[in-house]
Automatic annotation (TrEMBL):
Pfam family, one: Lsr2_DNA-bd
The entry's keywords: DNA-binding
Organism, as annotated: Nakamurella multipartita (strain ATCC 700099 / DSM 44233 / CIP 104796 / JCM 9543 / NBRC 105858 / Y-104) (Microsphaera multipartita)
Top-level taxon of origin: Bacteria
GO MF assignments: acyltransferase activity; DNA binding
Protein name: Lsr2 family protein
Gene3D superfamilies, per the entry: E3-binding domain, Lsr2, dimerization domain
The Lsr2 DNA-binding domain, residue ranges: 73-108
Length: 110
Protein backbone atom coordinates (compact mmCIF):
# COMPACT_ATOMS: atom_id res chain seq x y z
CA UNK A 1 0.00 0.00 0.00
CA UNK A 2 1.39 3.43 -0.92
CA UNK A 3 1.43 6.32 1.51
CA UNK A 4 1.44 9.98 0.67
CA UNK A 5 2.50 12.59 3.19
CA UNK A 6 1.42 16.18 2.70
CA UNK A 7 3.10 19.09 4.44
CA UNK A 8 1.03 22.24 4.68
CA UNK A 9 2.71 25.47 5.76
CA UNK A 10 0.62 27.57 8.09
CA UNK A 11 1.06 31.33 8.43
CA UNK A 12 2.75 31.94 11.78
CA UNK A 13 0.78 35.16 12.31
CA UNK A 14 -2.81 34.32 11.49
CA UNK A 15 -3.00 30.55 11.00
CA UNK A 16 -4.04 30.68 7.33
CA UNK A 17 -2.30 28.67 4.62
CA UNK A 18 1.22 30.04 4.15
CA UNK A 19 2.70 30.71 0.73
CA UNK A 20 6.38 30.96 1.65
CA UNK A 21 9.02 30.89 4.34
CA UNK A 22 10.67 34.30 4.74
CA UNK A 23 14.17 34.50 6.20
CA UNK A 24 15.59 37.68 7.69
CA UNK A 25 18.15 38.79 10.23
CA UNK A 26 18.43 41.40 12.96
CA UNK A 27 21.08 42.09 15.58
CA UNK A 28 23.22 39.16 14.45
CA UNK A 29 20.39 36.65 14.73
CA UNK A 30 18.69 34.86 11.85
CA UNK A 31 14.95 34.27 11.75
CA UNK A 32 12.49 32.52 9.48
CA UNK A 33 8.73 32.79 9.46
CA UNK A 34 6.04 31.09 7.38
CA UNK A 35 3.70 33.70 5.87
CA UNK A 36 0.87 33.97 3.37
CA UNK A 37 1.35 36.35 0.43
CA UNK A 38 -0.34 39.30 2.16
CA UNK A 39 1.69 39.00 5.38
CA UNK A 40 4.95 38.42 3.46
CA UNK A 41 4.29 41.61 1.48
CA UNK A 42 3.50 43.48 4.72
CA UNK A 43 6.79 42.32 6.27
CA UNK A 44 8.77 43.36 3.20
CA UNK A 45 6.99 46.74 3.16
CA UNK A 46 7.68 47.29 6.87
CA UNK A 47 11.38 46.52 6.41
CA UNK A 48 11.65 48.20 3.01
CA UNK A 49 12.67 51.64 4.23
CA UNK A 50 15.37 50.12 6.39
CA UNK A 51 16.70 47.66 3.82
CA UNK A 52 16.80 50.42 1.19
CA UNK A 53 19.08 52.50 3.42
CA UNK A 54 21.15 49.59 4.75
CA UNK A 55 24.44 48.19 3.43
CA UNK A 56 24.40 44.65 2.11
CA UNK A 57 26.91 42.34 3.72
CA UNK A 58 28.27 39.09 2.46
CA UNK A 59 27.56 35.95 4.37
CA UNK A 60 30.58 34.39 5.89
CA UNK A 61 32.18 33.09 8.96
CA UNK A 62 31.80 35.04 12.17
CA UNK A 63 34.84 36.90 13.44
CA UNK A 64 37.42 34.70 15.12
CA UNK A 65 37.29 34.57 18.89
CA UNK A 66 40.45 35.56 20.73
CA UNK A 67 42.71 32.65 21.57
CA UNK A 68 42.51 31.33 25.09
CA UNK A 69 45.48 31.83 27.36
CA UNK A 70 48.05 29.08 27.11
CA UNK A 71 47.60 26.29 29.62
CA UNK A 72 50.25 26.13 32.30
CA UNK A 73 53.06 23.67 31.71
CA UNK A 74 52.37 20.19 33.04
CA UNK A 75 54.37 19.07 36.02
CA UNK A 76 55.45 15.55 36.84
CA UNK A 77 52.79 14.51 39.35
CA UNK A 78 54.92 11.69 40.73
CA UNK A 79 57.83 14.06 41.36
CA UNK A 80 55.54 16.61 43.04
CA UNK A 81 54.04 13.93 45.31
CA UNK A 82 57.51 12.64 46.27
CA UNK A 83 58.71 16.18 46.99
CA UNK A 84 55.57 16.92 49.03
CA UNK A 85 55.99 13.74 51.11
CA UNK A 86 59.67 14.54 51.74
CA UNK A 87 58.68 18.03 52.91
CA UNK A 88 55.84 16.96 55.20
CA UNK A 89 53.03 18.09 52.89
CA UNK A 90 50.12 15.68 52.64
CA UNK A 91 48.68 15.11 49.16
CA UNK A 92 46.43 12.33 47.94
CA UNK A 93 48.00 9.41 46.09
CA UNK A 94 45.68 9.99 43.14
CA UNK A 95 43.83 12.87 41.56
CA UNK A 96 44.53 16.54 41.20
CA UNK A 97 47.37 18.05 43.19
CA UNK A 98 46.39 21.37 44.81
CA UNK A 99 47.80 24.36 42.95
CA UNK A 100 49.49 25.78 46.06
CA UNK A 101 51.48 22.54 46.43
CA UNK A 102 52.51 22.66 42.77
CA UNK A 103 53.56 26.32 43.20
CA UNK A 104 55.68 25.44 46.25
CA UNK A 105 57.26 22.54 44.34
CA UNK A 106 58.08 24.78 41.37
CA UNK A 107 59.54 27.45 43.66
CA UNK A 108 61.71 24.86 45.40
CA UNK A 109 62.79 23.24 42.13
CA UNK A 110 63.77 26.63 40.77
Amino acid sequence: MAQQTTVTLTDDLDGTKAAETVRFGLDGRSYEIDLNKRNAAALRKALGEFTAAARKVRGGRPAAKPAAAAAPAKVDAKAVREWAAANGITVSARGRIPSDVVEKYEAAAG
